[in-house]
Design goal:
Helix content is about 30%, strand content about 35%. The chain contains two helices and four strands, in the order E-H-E-H-E-E. Belongs to the sulfur carrier protein TusA family.
């Protein structure tokens, strides 16, 4: 599983970097995204829904949002 640390980046960078990471993955691959931008709680699930990929899990621990995404 790939991990992408986007903590400290502000909108729209977490969504843009997530999109770029997903574009480089093979079908069925999983990436875990960690970020601190509160807008990512809206932006990343929306991006995943638009791309057809699967948001397998999302979590918040303090100010860190974590998303687990499987490439379609």
């Amino acid at each position: 599983m790939d991990r992408l640390d986007l903590r400290g980046l502000k909108c729209p960078l977490p969504a843009l970097k997530t999109k770029k990471a997903l574009a480089g993955l093979a079908a069925g691959s999983v990436v875990e995204i960690a970020c601190t931008d509160p807008m990512a709680a809206i932006d990343i699930p929306h991006l995943v829904a638009e791309s057809g990929d699967a948001l397998e899990a999302s979590d918040r621990a303090g100010d860190v949002l974590t998303f687990r995404i499987r490439k379609r």
